[in-house]
Amino acid sequence: MDALLGEPWTLSPSVALRPEPFGALAYHFGNRKLTFLKRPELVAVVRGLGAAPDVRGALEAAGIPASQHAAYASALRGLAATDMIRPRKDAA
Amino acid sequence: MNPEIAEDQANELAAEDLIEEVSIDGMCGVY
Amino acid sequence: MTIAPERPTQRPQNASLVQQFEYGLDAPICLTWELTYACNLECAHCLSSSGRRDPRELSTEQCKAVIDELQRMQVFYVNIGGGEPTIRPDFWELLEYAVNHQVGVKFSTNGVRITPEKAAFLASPACHGYVDVQVSLDGATAEVNDYVRGPGSYDTALRALANLKDAGFEDAKISVVCTRQNIGQLDEFKALADQYGATLRLTRLRPSGRGADVWDELHPLPEQQRELYDWLMKHTAEGEEVLTGDSFFHLAAFGESLPGLNLCGAGRVVCLIDPVGDVYACPFAIHDNFLAGNLLSDGGFQRVWQTSALFNELRAPQTGGACAKCEFFDSCRGGCMAAKFFTGLPLDGPDPECVQGYGEQALDQLGMAGDRAIPSASQDHSKANPTRNQPVMLTLLTDRPSGPPVSACAESPLASFDPGGSVGSRDGCCATSSTTGADGCCATSSTTGADGCCATSSTTGADGGC
Hints:
By secondary structure, chain B is α+β, with helices and mostly antiparallel strands. Chain B contains 2 helices and 1 strand. Chain C has a 9-stranded mixed beta sheet.
């Protein structure tokens, strides 16, 4: 199980999230990476990351079934790799 | 739909179904 | 502007990303914004037929209103071009305004105004890292470059790149239009980019603007397309940083597609805003047939982008026409609309440079039937009289439209003087100035022209500019 699930994360400040009919476009002004979020549910998860105690909390708040948590964690890893999201350094 | 089939399909969800990276220079029509 | 009739959203569920983009977006992802038609150069292949400023050019306040709208629409970045955008006196002000309003900027320049001071500004925190600089270069040597871009233009470009590097500006772009003359220099271009700490960008020549006049001589030969494709496949693999602006998606029919969306973005994910506020589907399609509307008279850019009939036509599923039966249609998508249009080919048929040769065939058939008609440009802002910056290529063309060409060796400073043009004339430089600055601008003009040079200056500049 991905350790990410128990960590607090958040959207990076240089990222613009632009809703589309089919999900959202995320653009990082710093590294100019452009990522397409293909499901509205993922968009909800990403938007909710900052307010949730940890990633699992954000997934649950967005109604993602537990069977999909691994896939979402993997997608979030992909976003982390381009600094679209980053770890939050707050007290749990 | 049979909930077991739904769950099976859900279990096949992959990261590529959720995100796709595109180059900001990868759009034709910007010189 | 014709407004499209209401139609229900017909997006397919679970469509691929590319399929979704073909249906268009509520806002462009990025777009090209030509700030001015004025230019100090007269490149033979200029896609926008630039040279003379258009008197209807958007004002500073109008430009800021456009930026405000782009911010609201969350357009991620805008490629500011022209003409030569840095010739506008308010260019630096507009650049800062965009940067401060969350609109990223890449600007395309021939380098004429990228002094050490400007380079330092671009590298400074004031630009937040939101600014990308793209220097145009069409030859790895002065001989090849200046043939199409004019004498001294190679030096100007390299000087700009050196200034940027010295100021600590990271990752400028060198943007090359691939031609018959320069495809043999790809390794040298890469070496130049490495030398200046820049990223190389190779793009496709389209027969647009003045490009239509030089297409026959400049466009790559079929075997050169293959050479280019092989080189790009090698240099765009993971980690290798050669860009293409997705301009070679027609080459996907050779085999694997190159990185990028591999589809025509016109009216779907990109478009052009021209210096007078006209909105076209694509910067390579400046023609009434591809004019979606005008942001001043049609209620602003968002309204044009979302409701124009032209754009909604482009966002409907395309059938592919004669190309749909070809086994490679899925990869090449029938090629470039602008390339077809400006060579007189029908839009529902092959690209003139179709790698299977169907485009050449189609051109031959049209030629033999006497049916080939090349549309003339709807807009031509080329200089009325050639200046000392005229590239040799234009001088050599047999059918010069306006008077005898000026030899590049002409010694008289009045060689290009046309008594019919008046002081403050409409061409790109004040043609009656008896001295010219090193950058092609009028160093000692004491009158103001309505053109792009010396436009607001009533005094002489010490730097050879305005």
